[in-house]
Amino acid sequence: MRAVTWQGRHKISVETVPDPEIVNPRDAIIRVTSTAICGSDLHLYDGYIPGMRAGDIVGHEFMGEVVETGASSTLHRGQRVVVPFTISCGQCFFCEKQQYSACDNSNPSETRDVSELMMGHAMGGAFGYAHLTGGYAGGQAEYVRIPYSDVGPVVIPDGLADDDVLFLSDILPTGWQAAVNADIEPGDTVAVWGCGPVGLFTIQSALLLGAGRVIAIDHFPTRLALAKKYGAEILDYTKVDVREALAEMTGGIGPDACIDCVGMESHGFTVDNILDQVKVKLLSSTERIHALRQAILACRKGGRLSIPGVYGGFADKFPLGQLMEKGLTVKSGQTHVQRYSGELLDMIQAGKFDTVSLISHHASLEDAAEMYRHWHDEQDLYTKIVLKPGLAKGAVSARQEMEHA
Amino acid sequence: MSRSKNDLPDPLILAAAGAGIAVLATGAALWQRRRHRESRGQEETIATDAPHWTLDKTSSRALFGKSVLINRPRAELYAAWMPERFPEFMENVVAVDDLGDDVSQWTIKAPAGREVTLVNRITERVEDTSIYWQSTPASDIANSGEVRFTDAPAGRGTYVSLILAYDPPAGKVGRLAAKLLQREPEVQARRDLHRFKQLMETGEVTTNASPSARGAESPAEPHI
What we know:
The structure holds 2 protein chains of 2 kinds. Chain A is built from 14 helices and 19 strands. By secondary structure, chain A is an alpha/beta fold. Chain B has a domain at 56-202: 2-Layer Sandwich (Alpha-D-Glucose-1,6-Bisphosphate, Chain A, domain 4). Classes of the chains: A alpha/beta, B alpha+beta.
């Protein structure tokens, strides 16, 4: 089959690789119909995630059709399913508590030692995201083996297009959990750093969960325009002092909840971020936490901080005293996708989410290398890319064309 | 006379002096700490509740112990821990043959494609609680150990602890060689314990077997 592979920093290539096989009784194999490039794939692309090996198949947002099932899979050939990016057994202590991304069985014994050494405990498994999370082949491919297929995959009812439901795999539940973790109370002011796909779903989720207003922060005009379309007030951090603006918009007290949808590769021309950039370049750190620092300082006393943004290790100049003295509550973590799949599918069917208008491009799987480059270099124009194994090489359709179609 | 700008020390020299002071201070602190530790060497220390296999520094331990939480009832796990099932979850156990009288012979993969044979006798069983074993003189590696099953609180299942002592073959060199090849018994025991957990909780041993663009790998075999 054809698959998108990571070959090194800023090196993505589409290769012919062996087809996956059923290995365990609970496995299923799906033929991928749609697979998106995630913001967190950029951390792999930029080489900031340890434990990648040349030749790894990437991608963790995907859906498709079941083509083969193991003896104990509950899926049937021909079903359309969306696959959560987290691999979860459903039976360990963590899965029973619905902390699916902390699954204690999905990271195999061959890879969990290094993960445990780095994090203190072995992380749960995930598709296409380095060997610290299990070393599983990813979904930017024609076929994928799905372990524990009786627990994860969401069977999609007829009549829903791929674009309507694809993001149940990661960014929709990630945005939802980010808002849930902010413990929003009716009328709250919620500030969201980053209007990438996760930020855009966080905005929609926060409003659905009762936020009185959402203030979104970014600097790409297209992304800010999408945030506005989804109901947020917007701030361009290159035009204003974000903390001053947030304070002035909240009578001086600051937002009730702050959500960092940026993660480890913060942008911005500020002293702390320039220092972080230098340290990252000198390989003495992987974390650029400017957005997180700003969120902590901006948040109201006794407020809540939710961190869906991805971080990889130790960070410098973390405002710990500010966090403590202001009495903030912090919630974070990879998404417990399986916990939210059912209710979010219902909400999509009820028309509560706009899951489509953030997609800027559809392209062939064969054009993945070029699409990664665009995703990395042109973040204003490229707000979400969906790869289709079925499309012919070079068949790219952009949002503008879709709107005219 | 006021100091002119030129009298100010070079910032680099200042920084170097600062670093030197830091090194000296650290050295002095370490020296004092060591003296302090030596002087109280004879003192009684308070008995703590740490499991006995966690005492001593890792490098000077004669014992290896590892515990996992398994979300199954204690009796079920005790019943499943039987030599006939070991090849299902012990990666390097090729075969276990029952020699009768609670003695079993284990064929185990060793470095450089060799195999070693363990001959172990179960010396004690405490129903649903623990199993002890001890190698016989016929064993290639002298070893003894215990697997212990304890109820975990709040209906979480069972803590399973594997406690193991052994004489590495060919002394330290053999152990080092085995470690390099990741067949070191401690690493192996830890991994096997996790495989036991996977098998008991999920009904299968977890594998990341999947394709890659690395020619040498099979999509049906696990990889690191």
